[in-house]
Amino acid sequence: MKTEKITLAGDVPGNSIELRVLRFEGKDNEGVSAYLQSSLHGSELPGQAALHFLIPMLERAEKEGRIAGNITVVPQANPIGSAQWQAHQHLGRFDYFSGVNFNRSFPLLASFDTTGLPAIDAPKSLAERLKAQLLRLALPHEIVLDLHCDDESENYLYIHQAFLPEMYDLASALGSTAILSWDSTADAAFEEACAHPALHLSEQERKARAVTTVEFRGLNDVDIETGKHDAEGLYRFLVHRGVIIDDSVKLKVDFNGPVTPLENVEMIRAPQGGMVLFHVDIGAEVEAGANLVTVVTVPGDPSGDITLTAPQAGRILTRRSHRYTRRGDDLLKLLGGKRSENARPGSLEA
Ligand SMILES: [Zn+2]
To answer: How far apart are CA 224 and CA 79, in angstroms?
Structure first.
């Protein structure tokens, strides 16, 4: 394993960030290559825990000459967001300087040629240069896994329709319970920037690839057992795709969860601010009209309670982890079987 440290100068004198990049060299020139990164949103750590346990497995495979394709791992993809604290709270989703989500506004390239991206010392903000650098690292690989997590959540994947159903293997390897399928968003996430140039490839070349955002459950699902389990899932997938050679590992592709287009996801939003009391847990199957969540606007006065119900039957995929909401905040995601009447183009969340 080679460790590379890429330094990006800050936007003012005396500041810089360091990106730690781990590289495993494949012994087969034709071997499928893979890129894995975690924590683009700073403190989303389930993916980082998985990589923490995966890296020693990769080192062992390397020692035994079983790495076929190049593997690049960036366990902490966002040193800017990782360092954003305010009043003892970590806030890693949006760049303090611009207010822009660290996983939006990635440049979309027509091909895999990255020479048009801002250089590491371009006259651009640090977050923009970091995004360009992550794309330069990821785009040479056929497999790109961007490891995130939701608030309180099942283990699920975002996958562009062009990579389905071939990527059911990843869902099977990771034990994902659902896939959210998409074809375009208004404000490109890292996943879309990595998928975009592949859309121009022949169908055969494209289907051999895998690009995804992995939502490894919720923010607090970070522990030794889960991390090891997820590392084994990632390893199983890499073996299945031929990146690593390991005859002792077999993957059964048996994913049979829902594959839900983004427009079928019911985003339940708070009509007013207040205390959040959920009626349902993640993973629950609900009927249309079932009580989902009550927002208490006047504590002690039930007449101020607002109870939101399921617009259609479906499965509860995620819940917010906070219990105090503002008007307009997202509260939960429900996977429906038909288009949501509130569907809007673009990403589900800000
Ligand atoms: Zn995230």
So the answer is: 23
